[in-house]
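[job 4471] stage=fold_predict status=RUNNING
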Amino acid sequence: RLVESGGGLVQAGESLSLSCVATQMGYSINAMGWYRQAPGKSRELVAYIIGASTTYDDSVKGRFTISRDRAKNTVYLQMNNLQPEDTAVYFCYAQDIVPHDYWGQGTQVTVSS
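[job 4471] inference complete, writing structure tokens
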């Protein structure tokens, strides 16, 4: 399962860091990432990492950084210069080598203007 931490309420221009640890995984993890879902909108990809390769949504490029500690089965999302439009529930995602997909429970990020 995936256990997220971080998130909260910040003002525009401030930073937050999210982390997600994968536990009790039956197979090795291939990819990890973050999605978000704002009220009334569908879930969208924020960033993901496979090996040393990273992909970002255009809206967060240059502001967010995804990283992974393979030994700890943990993925991180450093979010800088947050804006009100970044307000959403952020979900951790992992895919193992089978592949099976896993989702975290979500953590709220709220950015006030």
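[job 4471] summary: The first strand starts at residue 2 and ends at 6.
[job 4471] exit 0
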